[in-house]
Amino acid sequence: MVDKKLSKNFFLISFLPAIAYWYLEENYPIRIAVTGGLILATLEICFEKYFTKHVHGISKFNFILIAMLGGLSLLGDEGIWFKLQPFFTGVIMGGFLIFKLWRGTGMMEEMMLSMMDEDRRPPSFVIRSLEFHSSLFFFIYGIFMGFVAFYWSTDRWVFFKTAGFYICFAIFFVFELIYMRLKMRKMIENQKKAELLKKF
Fold first, then answer.
1. At residue 1, does pLDDT exceed 50?
2. In the predicted model, is pLDDT for residue 139 greater than 80?
3. Is 130 left (phi over 0), alpha (psi -120 to 50) or beta?
4. When comparing pLDDT for 6 and 14, which is higher?
5. So where are the chain's domains?
6. Which residues contact 179 (CB under 8 A, 6 or more apart)?
C-alpha cells in the first residue's frame, strides 16, 4: 500500500520539471526557466533517493540528460536543448531496447525470466513482440517530441511531455493487447488444427 502511494507521488512529481519550465518560460527569461527546471529535476531525484532508498537507472539517465541539456541551454541562452530531453530519452531508450532484442534476449524478457516461473510466464514470442513494439513506440515518440520541441509551443510540449505521453501509451497498449489476443487465439487454433491432423 505504501509502495503504491509512493509510486503515485513520484508519478506526479515527475511532471514538475516540465511544468515549472513551462510556467517560468512564460513569465521569466530562458535562463531562469531552465534553472528552475534543473532545480526541480534535482529535487525529484533527491526525493526518490530519500523515500525509496535507491534511484532507478532510468531516473539517473534522465537526470544526467536533463543536466547536460540544461547546461547547454544555459550556455547558449536557448531553451530548445532543455526541451529536447524527451527526444533523446525516447530515441536512446527505444534504440537500446531494439539493440538488446537484436543481440538476443530483450530486457523485458530478462525481467520475466528472473521474476516469473515458467508455467506463469507468457510465451517468449509474446514477450519479444510486446518489447519490440514498445521499443518502436518509445523511439517514434521520441522523434515526435523532437518535432514538438522545435515546431510547437511550450504549452503543447508540456502536455506531450507529461499527460500526453501516458495517454498515447495507454492507447498503444490497448491496441497491443488486442493484437496479442488475436495472435494468441490464432496460435491456439493452429495448435488445435495440428493436433487434429496428427490423428489422421
1. no
2. yes
3. alpha
4. 14
5. 1-83, 86-200
6. 133
